[in-house]
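My hope is that you will study the record closing this message with an eye to the fold:
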Amino acid sequence: MSQPSGERAFPLPSQIDAVPGAEGWEEMYPYFSRFQPEDDQRFWFYNSMHFPEVVPAFDGLTSEIPYTAIGANTARLFSFPTTLGIEYRILNGRVYITANPVTDAGKIEERLAHFQERAGHYYANWDRLYDGWQGRIEALIAEIEAVEVPRLGELDDLSVVMESRGYASNHLLRENFHRCIDLYSKMWHHHTEFLMLGYGAYVVFFDFCRQAFPEIGDQTVARMVAGMDVTMYRPDDELKKLAALAVELDLADLFVEGNEPDKVLSGLAGRGDAGRRWLAALEEAKDPWFNVSVGDGFYHHHLSWADDLTVPFAALPRYVEQVRAGEDLTRPTDRLAQERERIADEYRALLGSDDEKAAFDQMLGLCRQVFPYIESHKFYCEHWFTTRFFQRIRAFGALLADRGVLAEADDVFHLRHPEVEDALADVQLAWASGGKELGARHWQPIVARRKEIVEALSRWSPPPALGPVPDSMNDPAVQMLWGVTDETITTWLGGEELDEHTVRGYAASPGVVEGVARVLMSVNDIGSIREGEVLVCPVTAPSWGPVFGKIAAAVSDIGGSMSHAAIVAREYGMPAVVGTGQATAKIRTGDRLRVDGDRGVVTILR
């Protein structure tokens, strides 16, 4: 790989070598997602937070649609003064992004006037508008749950004729598939409606604190809004109830570290009324609270707890043990709330005027009002809705497999969504004519080749960034969510000399602990985590919360002080260092670590 000229530069997109065995990968994604020659002049970074793996062809929709919605809300609806939207490109199956700033002073002032009117309306009426959002998102979930895949029998159902419906069931194949795509797009617009405003309120408060208190750390600002009771933690709360019930019903012996879910379930089935009561409670908790993905809702193969019980059942032995010991399983929300008041009082006292104190109180109050949404929305959007979305697409895949077009249901995720429509049209025509679908000889070789491409691309190590380095990385949202700062870029370029036993990142959650490392490169391996280990991973998802109760600390490659991993770690009162950029490369499973969540330093002791 050749390098661009200049000291501070990453490889240009055009200079990335082809991956052997992955020739033709570009066909998996739409033309507008590929790097263009002019993109060499811009800085891009790898969004490994949301896309830590190769993106299969259908899953390319999970970058296209979210960035469509994010940009529409920030740039066109609420007119954020200093930023437009996010552009994305896919290179060798990996998603790179760049933010489009507004730099013209006159344009910023013009946009600010619109922002104050539009965002001000939302901030002033937050609770009422949020209630409206809640109703809309639950209605969308009901809609996606109601989408059906038509059954195509020898004859259409008699009711179609007797009720004079006017169209045969094969018409519904593409209409209902389209409905899924349209609902997914609408969900993401709802998703970002409040989200960017939540970040906006925090960014304003963050900037105020950095100017008023130059020495204040990112974590200290974040701790002033900690101690939230949000919906995203409800699945974990349901697990704790199930653990308590297991103890009450004398079933604790079945929940043993390392025991596989199937073995536990079969054991429960043989325990009479007690086992039946526990299984009934499990089924009640599943809908909706187990519709939470083991990932972050961007990959079809990151299954929900309801589809794969590995994650919740990995957490249950620890919870059962804690209940038997009489320990308190609740998160330290009250302690965090007291601590946030203490910190806020200390910094308020440092302000020189009543006006400054009033501004501080107003901004902090708004942050606390809007910030719970930043976590709560994830359950409804990335998890509950998206779980149902992928289940519906998989059902269309099952129909294509039943009709012989695809070899198996999940092969549908190796087709782009317009290609799925073509495959469904093939079925529509064959059923209507009495002929045979022609798609097997067309699609099955394409799917087989794309599986080979995904496997080849998974062996590629993507650069953390591409293109020329900007003079300054001062976008606070990029800093707080992804942890990309001037210091991060220096580390990526190898400019910071650290010994081989030290990893630096963001001090995301306070505390210092020692423990043995468990390096997980895939969410699918989360069941292997053992009590007291230090989780080391590219990125965590909020749905990993239950295993936070059994680990000593968390360390991630990506993430800033307001990333979901950082927020969850603080709410669970567990030390964390995020945004290291290199933890998974330098640390091995079995290494003994010291994690300093106060300073953002991880030391490999042996």
